Amino acid sequence: MVALFAGALAHSRLDDDNYGEENIRDTNTRKEFGAFIRKFKKSEHLRSGEDVKRRFSIFSENVKGIKDHNKKKSSYRQEVNKFSDLTLHERVQFTGLTNISNVNLQRRNMAVTRRDMADVADAPDAYDHRDDGHVSEVTNQGDCGSCWTYGTVYPLEGELSILSGKDAVGLSQQEILSCAYESEADKNGCQGGWYMDGWEYVQKSGRLATAADEPYLGVDMDCDPDINEKPNAFEKYNVYGWKQVPSKDDAALAMFGSKHVIAVAVESFGLFFYEGGIFLDDLCETPALVNHAVTMVGYTTEAWIIKNSWGEDWGEKGYVRMSRAMNSHCGVSDYAFFPLVEEKIFNDDKDDDEDETEEATEEDECHDAKSAKFCAKRKGKGYCTNEKKLKKMKKNCAKTCDLCGA
User: Fold this and answer.
1) pTM for the full model?
2) CATH number 1.10.287.2250 given to 18-86
């Protein structure tokens, strides 16, 4: 599996991924290793004396590095965690973006427009989608390279929450993992992917289950033949595309981050032992060798608030604050995307005014052709910024939508 992440394996840190043979009789480290085995239930994987010695050596080296880091005046802390007996090569299994050179971004990319930029120009200095219920609980991808499915699902959860006005509900990573590459026999979802592929699946299939109805297994199985019989969280919604925040533009990332939960790609090598604080990694490559999909759910003046997929027992209850001191630190704004989601129009919600016959009476230069009730209702549903509906909204609700002269 790890060999597929070609970009990750080219990283200079992996040149030092060699572990000597530590003395397993070392009293202090032995106690720490024993506590580690008990806490993280590692004994089931240690079946021979050689296994124990190998893991002890790796653990000892990693703990030394963690202690050395914490002695420095760093903006963040490291800790012994579930990754501490793994080599960096092995830890890469817990990521899952395929090599960026294999992704045809041009085919999938929808660049933001000047109107999009104007719509987010009033972004506050700090914002956190968690405060408004747009973010579900942190979950754990395990050692399946499925981070891209979390980059697919978490932003979709945010969009449905924003549109519905309800708290975010967990959606199914497993459906994305098993079904997005169903037509490509040579692909396995645990061997990596990209969040745009997941959005494309939802766009074409018109469906996605909740996590409760199609729970995560952490293995790529064939798409469930009964998947269409399961409840569909997108019964009332459409995915009609996705857009990329201007690459390496941190100011734009903050602006769009105030309106959307955003999928981002980062270089993850320094993140594994993160405990808390503002993550600033001087060893991130330039340009960053992104290998892990995470989700930006907010920001402060100092940091990006990033939701990871390594469980709540990692970092700050599953989150990391990534420093804004360096532009696109570790690649955070290199490949930032968000899905475009809209409510479906049903027969009882047509754009005619059968139940809203009152016409606007304003005679000023900029006015609404339809009634205030008609326009306010559709503005509330996001039609004023929906590319598919702009022409009609400009004709009917130009004043309400601030489209005069546009």
Assistant:
1) 0.82
2) yes
